[in-house]
Amino acid sequence: MKEKKLINKKILFIIASKNFRDEEYFIPYEILQNEGANISTASSVKGEIVGVEGGEARSKMTLSEIEVNKFDAVVFIGGSGASEYFDNNQAHRVIQTAFNTNKVVAAICIAPIILAKAGVLKGKNATVWSSISDKIGKKELKEAGCNISAERIVTDGKIVTADGPSVAAEFANAIIEAMTSVVK
Fold this sequence. Notes:
This protein is of the alpha/beta class. The protein has one domain: Rossmann fold (3-Layer(aba) Sandwich). Helices cover 29% and strands 23% of the residues. The protein is built from five helices and eleven strands. It has helices at 22-34, 89-100, 112-118, 136-143, 168-180; strands at residues 10-14, 38-43, 47-50, 56-59, 61-62, 73-76, 104-108, 125-126, 147-148, 153-156, 159-162. The chain has a seven-stranded mixed beta sheet with strand order 5-2-1-6-7-11-10, sandwiched between helices. It has a two-stranded antiparallel ribbon with strand order 3-4. A two-stranded parallel sheet has the order 8-9. Strand 10 and strand 11 (159-162) form a beta hairpin. The longest helix is centred in the first third of the chain and has 13 residues, at 22-34. It is globular, with a radius of gyration of 15 Å.
């Protein structure tokens, strides 16, 4: 039996109040939990929240109730609903506090836009979901002074970004690596 890497580690997942991307939430949740992490979920509302594919998650706290110092990592889940946090001061407070206290800050799909707008991607390498018809993610990261990578998952210090649901498992593994490395 292999040793679990995240025993006694606390991770906060932040999902949109509607239309979060199921795979980006449930796959990393399961992988991180299987490594021993204690995971909490927050949103702009408390209670049951339904993802794009119909999966149900439970938010136990709102963004204003988050005490960042109680967590080792903060993970923003994507999906179209994540846009509710692009200009959300509470989301930005959570990100900036986590970043400034050297915690892992992670975001997948369009959620790296939230990190960019919070000001933590300036001069950092990151990726974001983008399509032929929708380039808003890359535009926002570029405007924030981020070095946009073509890689599907990018780790720069304690910041982990991924470009979408097809890399949800690899995203979780990158979070584990960032949480267990000694990089400052």
